[in-house]
Write a structure and sequence with these properties.
Keywords: Signal. With 372 residues, the chain is an all-beta fold. The chain contains no helices and 27 strands. The two termini are 35 Å apart.
Length: 372
């Protein structure tokens, strides 16, 4: 896509919800607290994802540009970048979150491959890696956060990220060549060094297969559940027993097809992979011990800023009909306020949930951090 020089600001919403009964009732929103915009000095970013890392939060964002001294947006575009932050303060004393980028502006978090115009070019008033000379671009947009599989002493973190290999002209998909697997590692504590990433396996999922792990993921009882989108914008799920296998080993995967788990990899078009009442739209899945349920939080169609919740006793379902629990005001730019690329990490101790919104400048009323 030929990127436009627009300015985005992200807002975080903290949601405190209570269940009368997870199996019988939708969650009830207790209250909303406004935290304000995320503070990201000098950077203009599109949708961010967030993950609990190592006593801090790792944010991975889409298209990133510099905010120049005169307030305008620079012409150089980086398809994905990363930052650290601390945790949100208590809703009783809301404070804005500050994102830190110790690597400075410029480095990609997930690098482009050689066949993805990695050297970069220019198109439609922007230049950068992944932008081709013919005006097309490889997007390099993460749809979800890295999946953390191990945390160790002294800041050691091992994680994996899936990235679609997709080329666009405008918003038209010209070709999609599968999904590659990246290894993401940290070997230092604190927030002074952004995790390193390496392209581990090219086209881990082929174009005829579901991009398991690209939509959302969760680990529960030592099993990683990886979700990917289907042709009708629903979800399909695969799983890996981490005590016996590895995310990078295709032989470790089982796939949920026609109501049962199988080792045979299904095709993207297989109707038996579809999980009813699910949605591919930007969201996240986590397990709530308090509710003894898997929980999906996600948005609806652009340009709305509505948040929905669905629960299931198992990762594969059955999933309840999504219920709207929050509605943000739509912004006043040409790209109005939308739910961010992923809801942030839950806080199971207090029944809070952290999500964020993204809006184009001029700022609309959705650019706020709230506790719902």
């Amino acid at each position: 896509m030929a990127a436009r020089l627009v300015q985005y600001s992200a807002a975080l919403i903290v949601c405190g919800m209570v269940f009368a009964s997870p199996s019988l009732s939708p969650p009830v929103v207790a209250k909303t607290t406004n935290y304000g915009d995320l503070i990201d000095p000098g950077l203009n970013r599109d949708s961010c994802t967030s993950a609990l890392w190592n006593k801090n939060v790792l944010w991975v964002c889409r298209d990133t540009q510099q905010v120049l001294k005169n307030g305008s947006i620079g012409h150089h575009l980086v398809a994905n970048t990363a930052s650290f932050s601390g945790f949100p303060s208590s809703p009783s004393h809301p404070k804005q979150l500050l994102l830190s980028s110790p690597q400075g502006y410029g480095p990609l978090f997930y690098a482009f491959e050689k066949d993805e115009c990695s050297a970069g070019g220019c198109g439609d008033n922007v230049c950068g890696p992944g932008i081709c000379g013919d005006g097309t671009r490889w997007v390099g947009w993460p749809d979800t956060t890295p999946l953390v599989v191990k945390r160790g002493l002294f800041g050691w973190v091992d994680a994996y990220g899936f990235m679609a290999k997709q080329r666009l002209r405008g918003l038209e998909v010209l070709n999609s060549t599968g999904n590659s697997l990246f290894k993401v590692t940290s070997r230092f504590p604190g927030e002074n060094i952004i995790p390193s990433t390496t392209m581990h396996i090219d086209a881990f999922w082929s174009p005829t297969e579901v991009g398991y792990g690209t939509a959302c993921h969760v680990i529960h009882d030592g099993i990683a559940y990886l979700y990917g989108g289907t042709p009708n914008a629903k979800l399909a799920v695969a799983r890996v027993d981490l005590s016996r296998g590895s995310i990078e080993d295709r032989k470790s995967y089982e796939f949920y097809v026609n109501g049962t788990w199988t080792r045979k990899t299904p095709l993207f078009t297989d109707p038996g992979i579809i999980l009813p009442n699910t949605s591919q739209k930007q969201g996240t899945i986590y397990y709530s011990p308090k509710w003894q349920s898997f929980v999906w939080i996600g948005g609806d169609s652009f340009p709305d800023a509505n948040a929905y919740i669905s629960t299931a006793p198992k990762a594969e379902g059955p999933w309840s009909t999504p219920q709207q629990f929050y509605s943000g005001a739509v912004g006043n730019g040409t790209l109005p306020c939308v739910l961010g690329a992923r809801a942030s990490q839950p806080d199971g101790r207090y029944g809070r949930l952290y999500i964020h919104l993204v809006d184009e400048d001029p700022p609309g009323p959705c650019n706020r951090l709230r506790c719902v």
